[in-house]
Design brief:
about 375 residues, A middle domain of Talin 1, about 70% helix, 2 strands, mainly alpha
């Protein structure tokens, strides 16, 4: 057997996360001029690509569905830190930031990532094949948590406005954590085979045959560099966020657009990783990344912001408006119809992308 070529000791994916974190330390808390914002944005894009590379190394080492879970949880934990930081800095004007960012994440993952990957898979193999049992469980979990956390607050009457009372918020946070913990257990232990990719003939792919997995040392190095890259992504995104907020305000756009931009930036590593998996005909891996990210976004963000209300000033607005509830309902219905057959065509992928386009249009022009 021909030995694999050795990976160079110094590679851009190893240097870039460290350089990006150093840059973040140098600019943290400072107002950035326009020229420097462009340079920071380039480092941000490179950190995203480095994060995707190291996530794929880890996924190859631990196998599915653990690989997609690592990336989803890592990104979401740092996304939560970004949301809480911006809410602390923003005061009352950021009361709806958690809601806007979480809902944007749900729409981007359930319609954008899933739709794009189904489209890529169907164009390559005519039909994109995935496991209906595992995907159905993921979609049901996302729908339940989105309904409890983002829809229900608009209909409660204990407090005025689309907000939970204290006990209601505690229940929503505990329910989110419990369901997410149960979901992870189901995905990785009790029914792991439901979340493994399938061939077009419907056979489970439990291992990759094209290359030997990386060593434990290489996987641990990639794990550390992945964390650094994600810290850099979120930190640099926060550094350019004042420019984003100023641009949104200057363009006369709603403040909720800031949440959309944050979600797009933070979910970029998962989007790239999911599309790469779809191109390798690993549609279930792509769906695990998409719906798993939506689940992690709700399951970890809601408890975190609930805890943060202890020291945050101002209200915490979680309830969606009428138009967003309609989009969420359409997403759940269309997602259910897509999942049931376990096979999808170009049409299903296009329908999901159309829903994402409708959400983006309404975000800019409510």
């Amino acid at each position: 057997m021909t030995p694999r070529p050795r990976t160079p000791l110094v590679h851009w994916t190893g240097v870039l996360p460290v350089a990006a974190v150093v840059l973040l330390a140098l600019i943290w808390g400072r107002s950035l001029p326009s020229a420097l914002v462009g340079a920071v944005s380039l480092f941000l894009a490179a950190a995203v690509l480095a994060a995707v590379h190291h996530a794929e190394v880890i996924a190859h080492r631990v196998g599915e569905p653990f690989g997609s879970l690592v990336l989803a949880v890592a990104v979401t934990i740092i996304e939560v830190a970004l949301i809480v930081t911006l809410m602390v800095d923003g005061g009352e004007k950021s009361a709806g930031l958690a809601r806007d960012t979480v809902f944007a994440a749900v729409m981007i993952t359930c319609n954008g990532i899933v739709g794009l990957c189904l489209l890529v898979g169907a164009l390559k193999r005519r039909v994109a094949v995935f496991n209906a049992e595992g995907t159905g469980a993921e979609l049901a979990s996302v729908a339940t948590l989105a309904g409890l956390s983002l829809v229900l607050p608009s209909f409660t009457t204990t407090t005025p406005g689309p907000q939970f009372s204290g006990p209601q918020l505690v229940f929503a946070a505990l329910a989110a954590l419990a369901l997410y913990g149960l979901f992870v257990t189901t995905q990785t232990i009790r029914h792991r085979d439901y979340f493994l990719p399938l061939t077009t003939a419907g056979e489970v792919i439990d291992s990759e045959d094209h290359a030997d997995p990386p060593s434990l040392r290489a996987a641990l190095s990639s794990l550390g560099l992945l964390v650094l890259a994600l810290v850099a992504v979120v930190g640099l995104a926060k550094a350019v966020s004042p420019t984003i907020e100023s641009g949104v305000a200057a363009a006369g756009l709603p403040s909720s657009v800031v949440g959309v931009v944050i979600a797009l930036l933070v979910l970029l590593p998962e989007t790239i990783a999911a599309v790469r998996a779809a191109r390798r005909d690993r549609i279930q891996t792509s769906i695990n990344l998409g719906l798993g990210s939506a689940m992690a976004s709700i399951g970890l963000t809601i408890p975190a912001v609930a805890l943060a209300t202890i020291w945050l000033k101002g209200p915490l607005v979680l309830g969606l408006g009428a138009s967003h509830m309609v989009l969420l309902a359409l997403t759940v219905v269309v997602g259910t119809l897509t999942v049931v057959p376990g096979r999808a065509t170009v049409l299903q992928g296009s329908v999901h992308l159309t829903l994402l386009a409708a959400y983006l249009v309404l975000a800019v022009s409510p």
